[in-house]
Amino acid sequence: MSFVGDLTWDEVGRRLLAGCDALLPIGAGAKEHGLHLPLRTDQIQAEWLSVKLAEATAALVWPTLTYGFYPAFRDYPGSVSLSAPLFEKLVGEVVGEIVRWRPRRLFVLDTGISTIKPVANALSAGTWEMPVVHLRIHEGPRYVAALERLRKQSFGSHADEPETSRMLVIAPHVVQMDRAEATPGEAFEGPLTRQRAPSGSYGDPTLATRQKGEALVEAMIGDLLETMGHMPRRSLDEKNVPDS
User: Fold this and answer.
1) DSSP 8-state assignment for residue 173
2) Counting Cβ atoms within 10 Å, is residue 51 exposed (0-12), middle (13-18) or buried (19+)?
3) What angle (nearest 5°) sits at the alpha carbon of residue 33, between those of residues 32 and 38?
4) Is the dihedral of CA 46, 47, 49, 55 positive or negative?
5) Edge to edge, what strands does the sheet with 22-26 contain?
6) What is the Cα gyration radius of the chain?
């Protein structure tokens, strides 16, 4: 099992003592994702990716941070956003608590875009005793190249062609393609509103396919695993679990 919430404390302790890595997923549990995807779409992606990474690395996965800084979506019922300072403090305190148990390394898996800056601020502000690494799922070279090759929409970044394609692989049972709607008009800047983006999508999710999703997900996982594999490891001859 990969999730600490499914284990007893002594099982977690033995895994840590053996020198395992830790993963902290960040993915919104209450953030609109168009008419065709549920509000917990980011949470689903964060936890699915965490399982894949844990299977390959034997990392322990801590509970997902499902509330974060998502100001662009507050016009849609159910969407929740913390302030950036509060979210930054939350990330810093949770990371500090995980680090206290001395995993070999800690990877913070960030599925958002607006969350990138506050997460980066929180991690840079800490003085950690082991590597703490910010994994940004959309920025790896394999993923960027696959996106450029496969994307047909003229603009987009949310509940759009790429994200919907990934969800057709990750959790096809939650995708309602018959309800997918493209954003009318042209690209715009700033928060989404129900006037400018009536469905809540920003882009064209009607262009999504499982085949595109398979290529995008494979590229994303490849980037993440490469980043995890090339980070420095703390020596195993150090004591991993503190007495208190």
Assistant:
1) G
2) middle
3) 85
4) positive
5) 60-61, 22-26, 106-110, 132-136
6) 18
Decide: helix, strand or coil at residue 109.
strand
Token pair, residue 222, equals 């490849």
User: DSSP of 40-51, one letter per residue?
Assistant: THHHHHHHHHHH
- Give pLDDT tens digits for 133-188: 999 999 999 999 999 999 999 999 999 999 999 999 999 999 999 999 999 999 99
Whether residue 73 contacts residue 191, with contact meaning beta carbons closer than 8 Å, is answered with: yes
Element (H, E) at 110: strand 106-110
> pLDDT (tens digit, 9 = 90+) per residue, 84-111?
999 999 999 999 999 999 999 999 999 9
Q: What are the φ and ψ backbone dihedral angles of 135, each rounded to 5 degrees?
A: -95, 115
Q: Is 124 exposed, middle or buried (0-12, 13-18, 19+ CB in 10 A)?
A: exposed
| Predicted local confidence at residue 98, as pLDDT | 97
- pLDDT of 220-235, one tens digit each? 999 999 999 966 555 4
Asked whether 61 and 94 are in contact (CB, 8 A), the reply is no
Write the single-letter amino acid at 220.
M
Closest Cα to residue 108, out of 150, 180, 53, 146?
A: 53
